[in-house]
Amino acid sequence: MLNNLITINARKYDGSLHRSWNAELISRDDEMLTFVGEFENEFVHSDLGVIKCGTISYEYYWLDRWYNIFQFHEPNGDFRNFYCNVNMPPTFINGCLDYVDLDIDVLVDRDLSYHILDQEEFAENALKFRYSSDTI
Strand 5-11 to strand 96-108: parallel, antiparallel, or no bridges (unpaired)? Predict the structure, then answer.
């Protein structure tokens, strides 16, 4: 499946690596990059529950916006949910997409109800990493 494999790095405000994974770049224009990836292993997430091996993730990154969106589909293709990250605008250099994750996430369920997650983590990290007032 993965022909145009790109490394995606989610970083903390100090630049340290938080998470890294590979996904296939499926479209690109001046403002947005779209990727597709597949979970190679089952993953347990405190808010998403169990993400099965084979779950598909369509990932949307705007180069000038402070968020990204993941659209998850079960291994059988059924829509699972959206997961939206608040982050600093990403950079895309030398086949690597990097962004600073600002902790707050929005989980959007199938019925389009939503839950704002990790506000406490944002408050803690804003102090720990000294987020600028513009970032806050």
Answer: parallel
Within 8 A by CB and 6+ apart from 73, the residues are 55, 56, 57, 58, 79, 80
In angstroms, the CA 58 to CA 42 distance is 17
Q: What's at 97, amino acid-wise?
A: L
Write down the pTM of the prediction.
Answer: 0.91
Assigned token pair, 38: 């597949």
Is the pLDDT at 67 greater than 60? The verdict is yes
- Tokens encoding 98: 């990097």
Q: Which residues contact 41 (CB under 8 A, 6 or more apart)?
A: 53
87 within 8 A of 63, measured Cβ to Cβ: no
